[in-house]
Amino acid sequence: MSTLPAAQPPAAGSPPALHLDGDLVALFRAVCDIPSVSGDERALADAVEAALLECAHLEVHRDQDTVVARTTLGRDRRVVVAGHLDTVPLTDPPNLPVRVVGEGAYADVWGRGTVDMKGGVAVQLALAAELVEPAQDVTWVFYDNEEVAADRNGLGRLARNRPDLLEADFAVLGEPTAAGLEGGCNGTLRADVRVPGVAAHSARAWVGSNAIHAAHEVLDRLAAYAPQDVEVEGLVFREGLNAVGIRGGVAGNVVPDECVVTVNYRFAPSRTVDDAVVHVRDVFAGFEVTVTDAAPGARPGLDDPLAADFAACVLAVTGGAPAPKYGWTDVARFAELGVPAVNFGPGDPLLAHKDDEHCPVGELTLCRDALRAWLSGARP
Hints:
Layout: E1 3-4, H1 24-32, H2 42-53, E2 59-63, E3 66-70, E4 78-84, E5 99-101, E6 108-110, H3 118-130, E7 137-143, H4 154-161, E8 170-173, E9 182-183, E10 187-196, E11 200-201, H5 211-214, H6 216-224, E12 229-232, E13 235-238, E14 240-248, E15 254-255, E16 258-267, H7 273-283, E17 288-295, H8 305-318, E18 323-324, H9 331-336, E19 341-343, E20 358-360, H10 361-376
Parallel strand pairs: 4-7, 4-8, 8-19, 9-18
Antiparallel strand pairs: 1-5, 2-3, 3-7, 5-6, 6-20, 9-19, 10-16, 10-17, 11-15, 12-13, 14-16
Helix pairs in contact: 1-3, 3-10, 8-10
């Protein structure tokens, strides 16, 4: 095993060039090495736009830091292939530039965004340039702000500003699936559970009521909570309810009069957001519950003819069987638009957002080959 030197960071000034007709791993590294933490995707969006504008067969559009490129061949069906440009924050010290460990098809690329989800973005870019005359018209979407609150999501903004650019018969989202096919996704809900108290000087704590101490009841309910496995259209989705934050206290000598526990509920796509809200309020009955963010899930929809055709072609290349997507992804947004969608991309989803995320080169090429075969009309 060897460690190759990290790619050099791009020079300051104009957006760094992305070479779409060269080596896929080199393109992957270049995409990763342009930092694009949510809200700061401009440099990468500029580079993506500049590269796609060099492709004469593509019609390119820009909406803030979302870039859309389309073929207009008059085919009888249109497919959207989409991926987000943003990542979660870098580590300290930064886990960029990326590094390559190993050789050839057995190498792994390590660094921020290698799993979630710049491998999928690199595959999209390479195929967008290569497939001049695909068997169906293709809309390639590269969007911003997926890793933050739903109201900032670039795909959602595009659906509001230019819904015509998302009209399609089917969609593929390049989220990490370890080169497997994942149908649907769980819904997600965040809520603040407020625990009241009575403020007092900490030297005379007996005249107050400590809200942080009282928060144990919320935590006890979470510890005792038994998540469900829910079967939806033949796939089993795993739910979860967890504390993801806690805050309280005003000073080092004051008994706090309020403590807030933030919880996140991941619920099966057979449930609506309203169902999820009712469930969370039931779990924390007796406490004030304020929902701060929510997004519905998406049913697998693998019985759709286009989805079934895609699955047959992709699984012939990659092997395996369809699985559920446990996390929330924008397949749910496509479902709301009436467009059947699946998740398919390189990278182990269990490594998403981790400081040591890394993606095998073999999965990168496997996803490219499978997607190329289906979009070009070839069959394994």
